[in-house]
What we know:
The structure holds 2 protein chains of 2 kinds. By secondary structure, chain A is α+β, with helices and mostly antiparallel strands. Chain A folds into 2 domains: 2-78, Ubiquitin-like (UB roll) (Roll); 82-153, DNA polymerase, domain 1, CATH 1.10.150. Chain A has helices at 24-31, 76-79, 83-94, 104-117, 123-129, 141-153; strands at 2-9, 12-19, 50-53, 56-59, 72-74. Chain B is of the alpha+beta class. Chain B contains 10 helices and 12 strands. Chain B has a 5-stranded antiparallel sheet with strand order 3-4-9-5-6. The radius of gyration of chain B is 20 Å and the shape is globular. The interface between A and B is large, with 38 and 35 residues.
Amino acid sequence: MRCEIEFTLNGATTQWAGEAGRKLLDVLRDEFALVGVKCGCREGECGACSVLMDGVLVNSCLVAMGRLQGCEVLTIEGYRLTERFKVLDRALANRSAVQCGYCIPGMVLAAEALLAACPRPSDAEVRRGLSGNLCRCTGYNAIAGAILDASKEGEGLW
Amino acid sequence: MVNSMVQTPKGKEGDTLAPKTLEAALASLAQEGAIPYAGGTDLMVAEDERRPFLFLHNIAELQGFSEDDEYYRLGAGLTYTRIMNDKRMPALLVEAASQIAAPAIRNAGTIGGNIANASPKADSALVLVATDSLVRLVSAAGERVIPIGQFLVGRQKTTRRPDELLVEILMPKRWLADYRFTKVGGRKALAISRVSFAGLFAAESGVIQHLALAFGAVEDTIVRRPQIDGLLIGKSVEEARALSEEWLAAWDAAITPLRGRVSARYRKQVCLNLAAAFLKSRLESTD
Ligand SMILES: Cc1cc2nc3c(=O)[nH]c(=O)nc-3n(C[C@H](O)[C@H](O)[C@H](O)COP(=O)(O)OP(=O)(O)OC[C@H]3O[C@@H](n4cnc5c(N)ncnc54)[C@H](O)[C@@H]3O)c2cc1C
Ligand code: FES
Ligand code: FES
């Protein structure tokens, strides 16, 4: 079933036409060249494809394009431009929390979603917030630590 | 080849793609046999772009929550995140919701999708079966309210007609005070249950008033056997202890687990252990 929709993508009003059942993940990567959105599993298990839809963390591999009419989608490419990103970026770098980097765009957006809802999380809350994002390299400790650092350093931003 | 009769649904008017009223959604379901799309977390695992989805998220009737003396009334479109963040929600349902997958799935996935998908592993459906909840199905022609056990009839099989939407779940309030919800799974987050269990118990003056067990991820549908639990209802703790072997044997005979990734015998044994432990703990606390 084809559809024509209008939605906001990283702040820009965007028209799109195509199959309503197409995965947002595929459209972001293949049609909008937003390749910071990673594809790990296509079935909701890994979180590499995470984006914010109306401010809410979702797996873009499980969102059909037709669902997006009137919505705001933020990918890592849009989030990069924010002050909050800079704080998270610095915190991850300080702890050398990034290895291959594949999981990181999704991790960062999961961290944003967590901190937006809970600005001063406990370690357990951070780990719960990241529980849908798999990392094959780091063992999570450095990433979780960096998010706790960011929550302190970003005082007032979240 | 252009078929001029086929209209492209225009999202902008929000009419056929994502209707804003239940009425409009039901009218288009009656005509087109579209596939209702709630959170997409079950539907979108499949790779098929061409499915004719009807997006439900704009329909206010599916987002409601209210309660009266008898029931919690839960809109089918409530997400797990909404359920977890609403203090008015029944604790048993909140507990099941908070153990489902991970935040992104809980943000999108809905209780109605969990039921309508008719998976024997569905966690909120398990709770609704254990509590003998009712589902309200509405079509352009009318509505019906039926026990969830008459809705879920097989793996991916429900008694929903193609022109009906699941609009509301009615969860009886009566026996919710004392419950247990357990998932025996693999990985913590994201792990769909291997075996899941929900149990309700109530006693007054040493007499069992209510006992209801339900098991998930073990047969084609969620298992609930009121006749078996009925063996102990109305009995004193003493009598129930004496009957507990018989009760467990009845469950043993009733559960016929399917072969799956985890062996059938293992799963059945887990069910029986969960049942026995639940009863034992409740009889002890009643003494
Ligand atoms: C990684 C991952 C982990 C998961 N973990 C769990 C878990 O731990 N426990 C668990 O129970 N589930 C789990 N699930 C499954 C899924 O998230 C849930 O079943 C969820 O509740 C489905 O809801 P939805 O709104 O996304 O359904 P959708 O995918 O939108 O729909 C599912 C089905 O229901 C139908 N439907 C939806 N709403 C209605 C309605 N109002 N009326 C009629 N039909 C309707 C659809 O047509 C479809 O057939 C998991 C899924 C993934 C991808
Ligand atoms: S690609 Fe979407 S969760 Fe893995
Ligand atoms: S850094 Fe490699 S997957 Fe996380």
